[in-house]
Design goal:
The protein is of the alpha+beta class. It is built from 3 helices and 5 strands. It has a single domain, classed as Double Stranded RNA Binding Domain. The protein has a 3-stranded antiparallel β-sheet, covered by helices on one side. Strands 1-2 form a two-stranded antiparallel sheet.
């Protein structure tokens, strides 16, 4: 089990890891070794996630989410396969932890009397400035 929050933990069997060749540094070795990791996590069918967290996670995943509801993360930052595996898992855990935090409801507020007065005096000053922009008569 991979702990995400005190209430949420993901099973190892829910993750599908495939190893692919990575670009970047590594010289000739990069053409021979599959050091990059492609991590897949099925959000829709995961028994570990509560429904609310799964919905927020699918919104948060953005373009990393497939139409089937699978998050695909590719990690190829490091030359070693193990470090890339750890990086992909850490990124998935961070994504799920961010989705586990419920959004704060906005509380409606009203402007204070002083704020209303400041707004109205500002409007009056601006109206006087604009009223003074008219054409100038030659007689005056």
């Amino acid at each position: 089990m991979i702990p995400v929050t005190p209430e949420i933990a993901i099973g190892e069997d829910e993750l599908v890891e495939t190893f692919i060749r990575a670009g970047g540094p590594g010289g000739q070795n990069v053409n021979k070794v599959s050091s990059a990791v492609q991590l897949r996590f099925d959000v829709r069918r995961s028994p570990s996630l509560p429904d609310a967290v799964a919905v927020r996670l699918m919104k948060l995943a953005g373009s990393r989410l497939t139409q089937d509801g699978v998050i695909v993360l590719t990690a190829q930052r490091f030359r070693e396969q193990e470090r890339n595996r750890a990086d992909a898992r850490a990124r998935l855990v961070a994504l799920i932890a961010a989705a586990a935090v419920p959004p704060v409801k906005r509380r409606l507020s009203r402007p204070t009397a002083a704020a209303k007065a400041r707004r109205l005096t500002g409007k009056a000053v601006r109206a006087k400035v604009k009223a003074a922009r008219g054409r100038v008569n030659a007689d005056e």
